[in-house]
Amino acid sequence: MKPKWLIVGSAGLLGSALLRICAQEDVEVIGMDRESIDVTNAESIASAFDRVQPACVISAAAMTDVEGAESPEGRALADLLNGTAVQLLAEACVARNIGFVQISTDSVFYGTDHEGAEESTIPEKAMNAYGESKRLGEKYMIDIFGGLDGSAFQRTTPVGYLIRTSWLFGHGARNFVGKVLAKASAGESLRIVDDEVGVPTFVDDLATRICWMLKTHVPNGIYHVVNDGSCSRFDFAKAVVEAKGLDVPMEHVSMKDFPRKAHIEPVSILRNTKLPPMPTWQDGVKRFVEGLE
User: Fold this and answer.
1) Which superfamily does 176-197+229-290 belong to?
2) Which of 104, 140, 235, 247 is the most exposed place for a label (fewest CB within 10 A)?
3) pTM of the model
């Protein structure tokens, strides 16, 4: 009998990619969205786990509305979905000896670091309210897996991976690349900030790496899974437009030209120091755009 991998939050950008890519492995993949499991309710989680009996749970469930998290109501929802839900899922997995993979973000870090944050870097303060909610989830998972030795969890069983990623793009969800392509395809000129730097990550590459980690049994702990390299939002958009073969005017603008409720760091880079290198972000953009044709 094939082992079962349960994808929680399977309707989202990462969840749908995980369903598609993990299905290529020698496992039975089961997806659950908010209609099938309430990740904020311990009884709902227990019922789903006992019914499915998965060998591993990969949670892509999250509140990702960065601007919305700045309101009191939005922050409460973010803390519930990005914090409490992680605690409940991790506790249920450990109690049943089920592997658990949780996705986090570069937004847990505050402060510009041009070298980038390593896996063992402790986020003392997050970038914004959304980041604080994800940092809360990280703290819960770290505690449940016995604390840290560097970036490794003290608890070695069951499987436990806390994966930070950034600037996700891919099929089936509204994201930066989709917005750029929609405007460029309509012949509209683009105004893109050139003073925000990060690491674009193709969601298919993230999903593929998660599958590889589970298959090869890498040790428990914190990992940074991002495409190789970094760039400004402007260079990111330019690469997308060029990969699509479009020719539209592009204007360099500053972050201050687009005021936001949430604080955004001008430089936010995750360094992958523990796993084999990922494909470059440029290669990810090329493959994503080619897949649209």
Assistant:
1) UDP-galactose 4-epimerase, domain 1 (3.90.25.10)
2) 247
3) 0.96
